[in-house]
């Protein structure tokens, strides 16, 4: 946004620059004083809430591996996988047919899988687990704790921040509000020590009815609301007052920059599609916002398939694959697919064994990365044997990860522009692994 | 008629406000922000009993509340008080008001369910409509508020799953919470555990014993969440809610996978009541689940604190032993007590406050553990909740968005011409939906700390849903539900629109002036803690908006009030 847009925004809102609160001013200031990058990059985190049974995305297709798989998964086994042809030489591996739309992206080199990923603070063996050695992540198998571990990039401490926000804070002194955007509300990934997510609703940000128009009512109400919010005294009141003040200022700025976005390729009606469509619109307008680096957080729920997995899980994967494909199309049409990388996270993988109708909370899982900068058509990390009582199985088919979430995340952060030293700062346990990053990004 | 009655109460309340409420605590005048409470109120006192340890002291008397005190108590203990309720309560002591509430008959929700015209099946919208009508109009307000709090601990949700098509079952689940709100926690735990709605939500309904050949083992979902969320939490706690530490200073986990598997076996063999089949059962979402012993795991079950349920104990006895094992755990008092405090009075209770409430959970004074009536009484009557002059600066909590709207609609006698309260997409406008959390982890976590409190020990759970998207959703909702829904501006075609009646407030302005209305708002919405700045903002509306009709002026005034930090911070 340039100064002229900023001023016209003030006029539109019916306020003079003198009327702006200090928070509004600082929001505006950060628009004007944006650190200028030579390039633009965005990371889009797609969090699959509940724990995706992601071992069931990539399937062994022959030999003992397949026999083990069929024996462990029983009625939950996928029997008609789509054969993948990765660049690397790997055991014959198939794709869950519900993910068919991803096959094309994979073959086009725009999509890769990372196998055997999970929360770890150091390389971990079955013996470590059985003897409860101190580096075992705390509260394994608990949804919110494991989600937080993924997103914090370190074990829980008294003050917790997310690696997404910390990454922005390493890149910039005072990150631009539009560099940190959530389509799914507050989350651990985007809370830093100076920045927290600017939350947008999945279909974009609403205009503020009370302040709309230029008549006395609109002007007086806006001024009065902003005065009151700024006058919050007590700490709990300030939590609300400061939060809403920023929310209003940032929403007005965002809506002004979204006004001129040209139509994008079609997206579906699903919640994930709608969120990704809004992400695409924000990316399309990013040159107006001036944030050289952006992180986005979107979510898809329903993956906690304790029951009815046979019917539910394919539906979830199909929706996921369709949304990915739509988003990829939008990035291509905007000409930014090399600059935008999308990736999944999920609480944990699930048990290989069944509870009769579904699966329970596991540990390691597989993840998806997509974008022009991804070294696609390949599978990274480890394809863990889907066999019960293997050396990776802590019990019931909960598999010990062979790639830590931090290695996976650090690979993305490195692409985003962080140095090796900064990666170690961002992920304190990274130094315990031989390999700090994987090879899936250009 | 009703309006006339309300006006008399209004007038008497304004008088009370003016003359100090006629109580012995006339000192808490407006502007001081303080609320001089009587000396330390007694802790839990079951009806008709002398408080424990006080036998030697003279019988306790309970002073009549001032209007400010009554307003504070009712903000903590109702779905949002009206002026009439505050006025009536100010003639009572806090003790008497709470006991009067305890004695109110239960307003169950399921009997209030109304089908939409022309429909022969209830829908999700009917469920939400029922919640609004019951929450707004029932006399047992304290029970409704406590049940709403419990619904955020014993979470079930019909967001994103098939329970959405089971509105009767969902309403019945809420009724179960209402039924036990002032009962015993052990009974509540059992009722929740055997609810077919909970069984569906956390998938222990239809859960079978292991089948080794097929690699099938019992579903662990309920076993995990009943411990993590409904009873003991993840870490061992002291009575005051602080975590216990081992010799290395580390926290101590309450359970591991061994207990998960033990409890998972407990919760096998249960399905819908009176089903004739185990597979593809007949679905009764109302009555408690029943057991099919042949599907129950009769293996040994390791529970907490080294307790083991022997093999072949039988499913019903095993369940009883397991729920007793959870119920008797030392964590339950502080774990549940603290969360109830957070839902009712303050996000950041002192350790001593938590300890006092936990103590009452452990023993209500008559040797009974888990008496929720005594716990609710202890939470509301605690000196930290009642005596604002002694409370820390950070005392209080952010008002939940649904409770903000509920208070407005209660005070403004909201109605629709069709009789329905249809509200669409509460998740976007309020960030919360009754029994509609995005997951079993509720809308917010009890330990959520927003960036603005970083570096302090303080949390603000409700801030987790006050992000820029939902805050603006709520801002717009308040604006439209006030300014665009004034009853007197509508003809007979408003249909399902939820209208607000601003005429009683207009009468106050006409008869006593704008200052009287603002002072009335001070009492009803702000428990007489309104700052001079806010008072000036509200008074000035009647100047800058003078060209608009009076009821619009009032709507703008109310809008500014409910979005103000002073209103949103319940103190």
- CATH architecture descriptor name of chain A: 3-Layer(aba) Sandwich
In one word, what is the shape of chain B? globular
The percent range for strand residues of chain B is: under 5%
Largest interface (C-beta under 8 Å): A-B, 79 and 81 residues
Please mark out the parts of chain A with pLDDT under 50 across 5 or more consecutive residues, or reply none: 1-19
Largest sheet of chain B: 2 strands, antiparallel
- Cα shape of chain A: globular
Structural class of chain B: mainly alpha
- What name does CATH use for the topology of chain A? Alkaline Phosphatase, subunit A
List segments of chain B where confidence is low: pLDDT < 50 over at least 5 consecutive residues: 1-55
Structural class of chain A: alpha/beta
How many domain units of chain A?
1
| Helix count, DSSP H or I runs of 4 or more residues of chain B | 24
Mean pLDDT of chain A: 92
**Mean pLDDT of chain B, as a whole number?**
91
Number of helices of chain A: 14
Specify the oligomeric state: heterodimer
In terms of DSSP E residues, the strand content of chain A is 5-15%
How many β-strands of chain B, per DSSP?
6
Characterise this structure:
Chain B: This is DUF1800 domain-containing protein. Chain B: Residues 1-26 form the signal peptide. Chain B: It holds the Pfam family DUF1800. Chain B: Residues 26-59 are annotated as: Disordered. Chain B: It comes from Motilimonas cestriensis. The complex is a heterodimer of chains A (442) and B (571). Chain A is built from 14 helices and 12 strands. Chain A is α/β, with parallel strands linked by helices. In chain A, the strands form 2 sheets. In chain A, strands 1, 5, 6, 7, 8, 9, 10, 11 and 12 form a 9-stranded mixed sheet that branches. Chain A is globular, with a radius of gyration of 23 Å. The longest helix of chain A is centred in the last third of the chain and has 26 residues, at 309-334. Chain A has a single domain (41-208, 266-432), classed as Alkaline Phosphatase, subunit A. Chain B starts with a helix and ends with a strand. Chain B has 571 residues and is mainly α. Helix content of chain B is 45%, strand content 2%. Chain B is globular, with a radius of gyration of 25 Å. Chain B has helices at residues 2-18, 67-77, 83-89, 94-102, 124-137, 141-150, 167-180, 185-194, 196-201, 221-231, 257-266, 315-327, 332-344, 351-362, 372-381, 383-386, 401-411, 426-430, 468-483, 503-512, 514-526, 532-544, 550-562, 565-568; strands spanning 270-271, 290-291, 301-302, 308-309, 397-398, 569-570. In chain B, helix 20 crosses helix 21. Chain B has a domain at 212-327. In chain B, the strands form 3 sheets. In chain B, strands 1-2 form a two-stranded antiparallel ribbon. Chain B has a two-stranded antiparallel ribbon with strand order 3-4. A two-stranded antiparallel sheet of chain B has the order 5-6. The interface between A and B is large, with 79 and 81 residues.
């Amino acid at each position: 946004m340039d100064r002229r847009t900023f001023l016209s925004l003030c006029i539109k809102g019916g306020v003079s620059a003198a009327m702006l609160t200090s928070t509004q001013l600082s929001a505006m200031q950060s628009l004007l004083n944006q650190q200028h990058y030579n390039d633009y990059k965005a990371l889009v985190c797609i969090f699959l809430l509940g724990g995706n049974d992601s071992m069931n995305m990539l399937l062994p297709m022959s030999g003992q591996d397949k026999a083990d798989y069929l024996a462990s998964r029983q009625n939950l086994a996928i029997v008609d996988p789509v054969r993948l042809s990765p660049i690397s030489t790997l055991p014959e591996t198939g794709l869950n047919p519900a993910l068919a739309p991803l096959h094309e992206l994979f073959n086009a080199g725009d999509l890769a899988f990372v196998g055997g990923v999970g929360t770890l603070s150091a390389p971990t063996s079955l013996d470590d687990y059985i003897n409860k050695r101190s580096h075992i992540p705390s509260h394994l198998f608990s949804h919110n704790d494991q989600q937080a571990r993924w997103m914090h990039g370190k074990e829980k401490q008294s003050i917790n921040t997310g690696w997404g926000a910390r990454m922005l804070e390493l890149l910039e002194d005072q990150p631009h509000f539009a560099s940190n955007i959530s389509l799914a509300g507050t989350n651990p990934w985007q809370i830093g020590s100076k920045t927290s997510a600017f939350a947008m609703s999945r279909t974009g940000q609403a205009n503020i009815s009370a302040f709309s128009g230029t008549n006395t009512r609109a002007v007086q109400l806006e001024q009065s609301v902003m005065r009151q919010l700024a006058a919050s005294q007590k700490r709990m009141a300030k939590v609300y007052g400061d939060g809403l003040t920023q929310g209003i200022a940032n929403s007005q700025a965002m809506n002004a920059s979204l006004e001129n976005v040209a139509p994008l390729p079609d997206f579906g009606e699903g919640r994930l599609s709608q969120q990704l469509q809004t992400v695409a619109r924000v990316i399309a307008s990013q040159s107006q916002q001036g944030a050289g680096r952006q992180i986005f957080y979107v979510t898809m729920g329903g993956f906690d398939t304790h029951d009815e997995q046979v019917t539910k899980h394919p539906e979830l994967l199909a929706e996921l694959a369709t949304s990915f494909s739509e988003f990829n199309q939008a990035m291509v049409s905007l000409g930014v697919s090399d600059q935008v990388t999308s990736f999944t996270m999920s609480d944990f993988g699930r048990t290989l064994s069944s509870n009769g109708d579904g699966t329970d909370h596991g540990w390691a899982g597989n993840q998806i990365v997509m974008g022009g900068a991804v070294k696609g058509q390949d599978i990274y990390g480890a394809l863990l044997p889907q066999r019960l009582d293997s050396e990776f199985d802590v019990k019931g088919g909960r598999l010990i990860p062979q790639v830590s979430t931090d290695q996976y995340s650090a690979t993305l952060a490195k692409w985003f522009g962080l140095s090796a030293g900064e990666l170690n700062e961002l992920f304190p346990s990274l130094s315990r692994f031989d390999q700090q990053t994987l090879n899936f990004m250009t | 008629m009703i309006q006339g009655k309300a006006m008399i109460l209004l007038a008497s309340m304004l008088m009370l406000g003016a003359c100090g409420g006629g109580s012995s605590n006339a000192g808490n005048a407006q502007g001081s922000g303080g609320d001089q409470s009587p000396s330390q109120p007694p802790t839990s006192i079951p009806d008709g009993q002398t408080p424990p340890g006080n036998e030697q002291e003279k019988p306790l008397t309970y002073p009549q509340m001032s209007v400010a005190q009554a307003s504070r108590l009712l903000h903590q203990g109702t779905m949002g008080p009206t002026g009439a309720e505050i006025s009536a309560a100010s003639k009572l002591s806090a003790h008497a008001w709470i006991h009067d509430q305890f004695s109110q008959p239960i307003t169950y929700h399921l009997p209030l369910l109304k089908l939409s015209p022309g429909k022969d099946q209830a829908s999700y919208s009917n469920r939400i409509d029922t919640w609004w009508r019951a929450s707004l109009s029932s006399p047992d307000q304290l029970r409704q508020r406590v049940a709403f709090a419990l619904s955020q601990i014993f979470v079930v949700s019909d967001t994103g799953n098939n329970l959405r098509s089971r509105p009767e079952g969902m309403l019945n689940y809420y009724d179960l919470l209402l039924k036990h709100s002032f009962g015993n926690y052990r009974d509540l735990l059992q009722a929740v555990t055997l609810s077919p709605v909970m069984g569906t939500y956390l998938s222990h309904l239809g859960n079978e014993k292991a089948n080794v050949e097929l690699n099938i083992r019992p579903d662990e979902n309920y076993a995990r969440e009943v411990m993590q969320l409904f009873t003991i939490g993840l870490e061992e706690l002291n009575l005051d809610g602080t975590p216990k530490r081992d010799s290395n200073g580390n926290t101590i986990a309450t359970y591991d996978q061994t207990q998960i598997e033990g409890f998972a076996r407990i919760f096998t063999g249960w399905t819908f009541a009176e089903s004739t089949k185990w597979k593809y059962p007949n679905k009764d979402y109302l009555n408690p689940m029943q057991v099919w012993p042949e599907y129950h795991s009769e293996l040994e079950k390791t529970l907490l604190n080294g307790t083991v349920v022997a093999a072949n104990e039988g499913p019903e006895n095993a369940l009883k032993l397991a729920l007793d094992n959870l119920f008797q755990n030392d964590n339950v008092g502080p774990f549940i007590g603290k969360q109830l405090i957070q839902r009712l009075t303050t996000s950041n209770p002192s350790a001593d406050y938590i300890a006092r409430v936990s103590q009452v959970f452990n023993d209500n004074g008559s040797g009974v553990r888990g008496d929720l009536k005594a716990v609710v009484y202890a939470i509301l009557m605690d000196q930290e909740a009642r005596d604002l002059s002694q409370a820390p600066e950070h005392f209080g909590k952010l008002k939940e968005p649904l409770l903000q709207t509920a208070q407005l609609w209660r005070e403004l006698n909201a109605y629709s011409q069709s009789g329905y309260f249809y509200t669409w997409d509460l998740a976007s406008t309020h960030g919360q939906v009754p029994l509609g959390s995005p997951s079993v982890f509720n809308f917010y976590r009890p330990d959520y700390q927003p960036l603005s409190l970083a570096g302090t020990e303080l949390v603000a759970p409700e801030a987790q849903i006050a992000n820029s998207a939902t805050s603006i959703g709520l801002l717009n909702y308040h604006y439209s539900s006030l300014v665009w829904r004034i009853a007197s501006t509508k003809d007979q075609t408003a249909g399902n629109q939820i209208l607000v009646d601003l005429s009683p407030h207009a009468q106050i302005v006409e008869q006593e002036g704008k200052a009287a209305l603002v002072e009335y708002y001070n009492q009803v919405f702000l428990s007489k803690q309104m700052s001079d700045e806010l008072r000036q903002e509200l008074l000035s509306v009647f100047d800058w908006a003078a060209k608009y009709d009076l009821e619009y002026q009032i709507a703008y005034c109310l809008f500014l009030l409910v979005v103000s930090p002073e209103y949103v911070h319940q103190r």
